[in-house]
User: What shape does this take?
Amino acid sequence: MPDQPSPKHAKDDPRVEDTQHAASQDSPAAEDTAAVVAVDTAGGAMQPSAVPATAQSGQLPGGSGTVLRRIFTGSGIVSVLAVLLALIIGGLLIASTDKQVATTAGYFFARPTDMLAAVWNAATRSYIALFQGSVFNPRGNGLAAQFAPFMETLTIATPLITAGLGVALAFRAGLFNIGAQGQIIVAGILAAWVGFALHLPFGLHLLLVLVAGIVGGALWGGLAGLLKARTGAHEVIVTIMFNYIALYFLRYLLNTPAFQRPGESNPISPILDPSAVYPQILGSQYRLHLGFVLAIAATVLVWWLLNRSTVGFEFRAVGANPKAAQTAGINVSRSTILVMAIAGGLAGMSGVAQVAGTEKVLTDGVAATYGFDAITVALLGRSTPWGTFAAGLLFGAFRAGAVQMQIQTGTPIDIVLVVQSLIVLFIAAPPLVRAVFGLNPRRRKPARAARSRQAATTGGAA
Amino acid sequence: MAENVALGAEPTKAAGFLNLDQTRQRIKEISDQYGFDVDPDALVEDLPVGVQQRVEIIKALVRNARVLILDEPTAVLTPQETDELLDIMRQLKSRGTSIVFISHKLREVKAVSDTITVIRRGKVVGTADPAASTTELASMMVGRAVSLTLDKAPAQPRETTFEVRDLTVIAPNGQHVVDHLSFHIKRGEILAIAGVQGNGQTELTEAILGLQERVSGSIVLDGRELVGRSVKEVLQAGVGFVPEDRKVDGLVGTFSVAENLVLDLYDKPPFAKGISMSPAKIMENAKARIGEFDVRTPSAAAAAGTLSGGNQQKLVMARELSRPLRLFIASQPTRGVDVGSIEFLHRRIVAERDQGTPVMIISTELDEVMELADRIAVLYKGKLVGTVPAGTSRDVLGLMMAGIPPEEHAQTPQAGTPAATSNAEGADHA
Assistant: This one.
C-alpha cells in the first residue's frame, strides 16, 4: 500500500513526538494515568489469573484501592461540600415540621413565595440559633458572655479531637480502630481512680492522672494491636468487643466499694481531688480546661509523627501498601502494635479530659458517644491531623449549639444527629456530592469502554 | 474441562438442565479438527499451562468465534509451547478465523502475523509488514532509534561471595516450592535464573530476602548466614532487591517519588536522625536519583503510582542501586517496561556487575536471560535443572525450562523438533 506510513516515517512524524511529550510532561488526570498503567502492565508476563482486571486499573493494591480507604482519605473539598449539603437537607427537615410552613403550604399554588419564605425563615432561624449557641451570642451580657458559647464548643470538642486523632492515626496505618470508646473508658477508669483515691501534691497529681489515662488507653488499644499482629484477629471485631468489655467492667467497678462513692446507691465515683483536675484556662466562668491545650499539642504531635518521623513513615507505608513496606524491611507487626497503642493513648487523653476536665467524676456515661463520634470526626477530617481537629470543632459546635437551638426555636436536638449522620452518608458517597454540585468530571465513555474491553480480553487469553 | 468450556454459555436440555454431553461432543469435534489432543473430563488445574491455554481457545471456538483476541498469550509458555501455539494460530487462520495477537515479543509477532499495528500510549503509531526488521519495530514502539543488542564486555568473575546451599522453601500448602537448590554467584558475574513463571522463582527471592517463613538450608553472603534474619538485616547486609511486581512489592503508590526513593533507607542517616526525618535531604536525594536514572516524573513530589510502568521500574532500580551493594537481585527487571527503558536498565545492571557486585537476574523472558547472563541456571518445579554458560542455544534452554536436563537432550541431535517437544510435555505430566 503506497499510503501506508513506513516505520521510519512514523518515527520522524513530529506530531507523534509531540503527543508523547505532552503526555509525559503534563501531570495527566488520574483516569488517563490509570489507562496508561493498565496498558503497560496488563501484559503479559503474568499468568492471566494473577492479574485480576481490578489490579490492572492502575489502582495500587495493598489496601489503597479499597472503598473504605478512599472514603477516609479522599479530598477535603468533598468534606466541606458534604457538610454544606447535610445542612441544606437538615434545613429542609426543620422546615417540614414548622407550623408556618404547613400553613403557607395550604395555599402554595396561589402564592408559592409565601411558603418558600417560610421554609427559608424556619431553617435560618434554627441555624442562627445553632450558631448563637455554639460560636457567638450577640445577646450576651458583655464580651465574655457573648463568647461563652464558643468556649463551650471548644470544651465539647476536646475529647472529640483527641479520640478522633486516635482513629485517624490508626487509619493511616491501615487499621480501622472502632475501639476509641473502650479506650476512653479504660483511660477514664484509671485516671479517675488516681484522681480520687490517691492524694498527691498539686501538679504531680494531675500529671499522674494524665499518665494513668494515656497508659490505660494505650494498653487497651495496644492489646487489640497485639492480637491483630500475633493472631491475625481482625481489629474491627476485636475493638468492638473490647468496647463492651470496657463498658461492662466499668459498670461492675462502679458497684464495688473501691469505686462507688460512700453513702451513694447510684453507680457514681467520688469526686476527683482538686489537685487532680485540669485547671480552667480562661477563668471560672467557662468550663474550658487545660485538656483543650493538650488537644492542640496532640494534633501538632500527630502531625509531626506522621509527616516528619520514621515511625510515621512506617505507619503510612504499612497503611498504603503493607507488602511493599515488608519488602522494604519495615516490621509490619511492630507497626500494628505501636500504632494501636498510640491511638489508644490519644483516645485515653479524651478519657482524661472527661474525668479530669468536664465531669470530675466517673460514671458509666464517661465516654458518652465520643468514641463513636470520633470515627465520624476522623472520617470528616480525612484522617489528617488538622482535618480531624477542624472536624472535632465542627462537631463540638453542633453539640453545643443544639441545646440553644431547641430552647430558642423548639427545633429538636435530634436534628443535629440527623445532620451528623447525613454528613457521614455524603462523605461515604463522594460521586453523589460531586454530582449534586456539578463537579463530576465529564464521563469519558470511550476510555472506559476500552478499558473494560481490555480486561475481557486478558481474561480470555490463556 | 467441559464445565469450564460451557461456563457462560451453558447448553441446556428441556426444563433447563445442563447438557454437558453436548459440550463434550463439541470439544471432541474441535479437538480432532485441530489436533488439540485434550480430554474433556480432565480437571483444568491438573493440565499444564500450555494445555490450559488451548482450553481457552477451544472455549472460543465452541462458540464459533470468528475473531480471536489473544493478549500476551505466550508469557506463561516455554519456547516450545509457544511454537505450538503459533502453529495453532496459523491453522485457525487458514480456516477463516481472524486473530488479533497482542504481544511485546517481537520475534513472535514477526513469526505469525500478516499485518503488524504498533500502538504507543493508546494511539496507533503505525503499521508494518512482518518482514520489517526487529529494530524497525522497536523504534516504532519507542518513538526513537534503539539498539536492541547490549554491548557488554565479557565478565571478569572474582571470588565467590554469595552461595546458596540445599535451600528448600515449603509453601503454606506443604508443597516444596524451592527444592534443595544449590548455586553460587561470583563477584562481577551475572547469574540469570531462567524458567517458566511459577517454578519457584518468587519463593527463591523471597527466601533470600527473609520474607519466607519455612526455609531450610543455607544462604551465605560474605561469610554471613542470611537464613533466619529479618528483611531489615538482610538489606543491611548489602542486598539490593528489585521485586518482580513493582506495584505490589516495590512501591507505595500513594507515596511521593521522593519518599519511594528512600523506602528502605528512610531511617538511616542522612535521611533521619533518631526518629526525626529530614525532608530536605530526602528531596535532595530524589533530585539526584531522578536525574541519574532519567525518571520521567512531573516532580519529585508526584505520587509514584501516577508514573508509567517504565518510570516506576526506573524508580525502584534507582533506589536499590543508590547504596553500596554486596549482592544485587533483580526479578523481572524489565517486565512491562518500554523498549527504550529496557536498554537503559540493562546497561545499569551490567554496570553494577562491572563494579564487582554479584548479580542475580530472575527472568521468564528468554531474550533477556540470553542478553544479560554470564551463566544461566534453569529452574523447573523448584529444582535446578542445570547451569549452563551464556550462549547456550534457545532450544536447549527451552527444553531445560520444560524440565529436561541438558545431558539428556544433548543425545538427541535435533533438539527442539516436534519429537523433543512432545517429550517435554511428557515431563510436564509426570
Remarks:
- The longest strand of chain B covers residues 160-170.
